[in-house]
Amino acid sequence: MSSRVTSERRRQLLLSLGPPVAAAVLAIVVSAIVLVITGSNPFRTFATMLEFGTRLETIIQALNRATPLFLSGVAAAIGFRMNLFNIGVEGQYILASFAAAAIGAEIILPGPLHVGLIMLISMVVGALAAGLAGFLKVTRGVNEVISTIMLNAIYTGGIIAAVFPLVIDRDNNAANAGTKLINESGWLPDLNGVVEIFTRDIKGSRSLTGVLVAAIIVGVGYHVVVNRSRFGFDLRASGMNPFAARAGGVPPKRMIMIAMLASGAIAGLIGMPEILSNNHSYDQGFVQGLGFGGIAVALLGRLNAGGMAVAALLFGFLDSSAAILQVRQLASSSITSIMQATVLFAAVVAYQIAERIRQREEIRAAGEAIAAESSEPAKAPGSASV
């Protein structure tokens, strides 16, 4: 009996760790082939990436890159749990960041209140931006993929383009002008002091964004709510089988609205590292693409908080270590994009294969249990067991 349990545990461990390990190996092999074709040495390239990527300053940079990617992944995962494809995380976080920067620059409050208000504004605007797509779905049956994609263009190319000239800082003659600079009371302190307690002084003017704390809180909250609460059960049930959930008393329209509002609220936090820690304003070069990157993080992380954290750290590490390749003229920095795409593609395929194997084994185990039960001799009526 114990050997059977041990074998089952090994099988489950293999099905859990096999896909990401296989995806990583395939990404390395494919990237090595590309490097050889382009005339680069794959061993030197990977060794340099590993050497540079394990430095403290590079780790800080990777964490800064991973923080908004993780938040974006959680925002997308909330929709995916409900079987909703919120493709509008990109437009939602950009609009929310713009509103938070423009309004936050006009307010002066004590530090914690100012920072909290900016984050609250961003979350409310993000929730409203995503909630509009949810409202269109529950009232008019508009597919959320179509509505969120179209709303992306409306938010970034419509609302922001129309309002931005009205709030631009005219006193700033820089080519990359933006909104007014937020007062220092609205700047979020970095975490360098905490890191340096356990390591050494961080060089190169690098600073670990304080938004990392908010990302950790969001990740823990997401895990607890989805896996340990009644609402999380209703959310997962509605996503897996909306008809059964409705029969069980779960209102589908309300769940759609709640999921979209929650997804948009988390999306509003994606741009906070730039607003609270880096630029302290919204300018024409504001970071973009994090919304679509979050979809990749959510898929690679299998919608689990821990998995998405690992995926975000992986992408952050690859992005941070890419610059050294061009500096040392070893390879093009686009090799990291190839690795990211290969990891995502291979992981999705491997996870599907593992899921089919798991389902086949469950069916086989259920069949064996039924066969064993049916083979037991039936007891005569009124007979008592000795």
Descriptors:
single chain; 386 residues; mainly alpha; ABC transporter involved in vitamin B12 uptake, BtuC; 15 helices; globular
Describe the overall structure:
With 386 residues, the protein is mostly helical. The chain is 74% helix and 0% strand. The protein has 15 helices and no strands. Helix 3 packs across helix 13 and helix 5 runs antiparallel to helix 11. The longest helix is centred in the last third of the chain and has 42 residues.
In a nutshell, what does this entry contain?
The protein is mainly α. It contains 15 helices and no strands.
Helices and strands, with pairings:
Layout: H1 2-37, H2 42-53, H3 56-81, H4 89-104, H5 111-140, H6 144-167, H7 192-198, H8 211-228, H9 230-240, H10 242-247, H11 252-267, H12 272-278, H13 290-300, H14 305-327, H15 334-375
Helix pairs in contact: 1-15, 2-14, 3-8, 3-11, 3-13, 3-14, 4-5, 4-6, 4-13, 5-6, 5-11, 8-9, 13-14, 13-15, 14-15
> What's the tally of helices?
15
Round the Cα radius of gyration to an integer and report it.
25 Å
Number of strands: 0
What does the overall shape look like?
globular
Give the C-level CATH assignment: Mainly Alpha
The share of residues in extended strands comes to under 5%
What average pLDDT do the residues reach?
Answer: 87
Task: Return the CATH topology.
Answer: ABC transporter involved in vitamin B12 uptake, BtuC
Q: How would you sum up the major sheet?
A: none
Q: Point out poorly predicted stretches.
A: none
How far from one another are the termini? 25 Å
Assign a percent range to the helix content: over 70%
- Structurally, the number of domains stands at 1
Structural class comes to mainly alpha
Order of helices and strands: HHHHHHHHHHHHHHH
Corresponding CATH architecture: Orthogonal Bundle
